[in-house]
Amino acid sequence: MSKLPDVKTSIFSIMSKMAAEYQAINLSQGFPNFPVDEKLTTIMARLSRENVHQYTPMAGYPLLLHQISKLVERSYDRILNPETEILVTAGATQGIFTTIMALVNSGDEVIILDPSYDCYEAPVLLSQATPVRIPLHDDYSPNWERIATACTSKIRMIIITNPHNPTGKILSNKDIESLETILEKHPNIILLSDEVYEYITFEDKHISAHTRKKIRNRCVMISSFGKSFHITGWKIGYVVAPEALMIEIKKVHQFLVFSVNSLSQMAISEYIDIVDLSEIKKRYQAKRDYFKELLISSRFDLLSCEGTYFQVASYAKISQENDVDFCKRLITEFGVAAIPISTFYADGSDLKLIRFCFAKDNNTLKEAALRLCKV
């Protein structure tokens, strides 16, 4: 008997497979196709010839833990204890899975805001808990009244994604204040803040839970080197949590992966000191603006993108077919792969919206736009 009877093949796998089959430009999965910083690959090449290939300590390579604490201090003016409040994980997804398995118990409920990334619900179900899926407003702002009403004594955790995938929205100060009010009324609720796109924001910076003293001591933060340094295949991220929660998270982590790739940890621990994080924002903002400019003559309506490397577009002026069928036809007839937004909703809400990934080199974006302008 299946533990996850309703879980099917990921839409990302489906669209990427179709893209390969039809030789379409793949703007569906969120991975960059341009080269990694040569400074990082040079470090990796040098270290690969050194004695760095055995297990690191379970929580992470000590120098990397220290470097992460410095990074958080520089970015958010928050002081962390690297030994007790930071955990290096095999990607952000493993950090999310581990956190939920460690802190959510049978019979608990977990609030997930739709549209939501597809890795949140499975560990909730495997914990024999119940996901409470609450849709965002049509402008993708949270429905705080509905969230507050849902916060019964059974709610163990609220999951937020900021900057938000798939919509590219960031939470406003008013949103954060509303969240703080809810958490103040419900002291047993833990916040899981997925901030993997924290260094990819544009006109305004996102407001990190790291900066909010009212909630950060009951919050588990999820970050991703894969997203920040466009090294998604390295599968390396980190979790920040107060010591009492981290003790429980580490208990699960040690039996799930024990420790993360040693070479990646050591390379990143050197790279953090020389990378310019402001350049990450500039690169992706330039790509967002370039892609938007290329699509001006298309029939797609582009929604505002405040962060991440995803552009949501409405095709309502083009077709009334459902978004899954439209995305499949986009591949087979026009040679571009995108992701249908309905797949991020528990109820399959179809607002005629699709998601493009613009983390691609300019030639790829230009060719994709040429094809999209013919739709």
TrEMBL record:
**Keywords of this entry:** Aminotransferase, Pyridoxal phosphate, Transferase
Question: In this protein, which residues make up the domain named Aminotransferase class I/classII large?
Answer: 24-371
UniProt keyword annotation of Zinc present: no
Which co-factor is required? pyridoxal 5'-phosphate
UniProt xrefs under InterPro entries: Aminotransferase_I/II_large, Kynurenine-oxoglutarate_AT, PyrdxlP-dep_Trfase, PyrdxlP-dep_Trfase_major, PyrdxlP-dep_Trfase_small
Q: Which GO terms describe its molecular function?
A: transaminase activity
Q: Which Gene3D superfamilies match?
A: Aspartate Aminotransferase, domain 1, Type I PLP-dependent aspartate aminotransferase-like (Major domain)
The parts of the chain that form a coiled coil are none
Q: Where are the transmembrane segments?
A: none
PANTHER family, sorted: FI04487P
Q: What is this protein called?
A: Methionine aminotransferase
* Source species: Flavobacterium tiangeerense
**Taxonomic classification:** Bacteria, Pseudomonadati, Bacteroidota, Flavobacteriia, Flavobacteriales
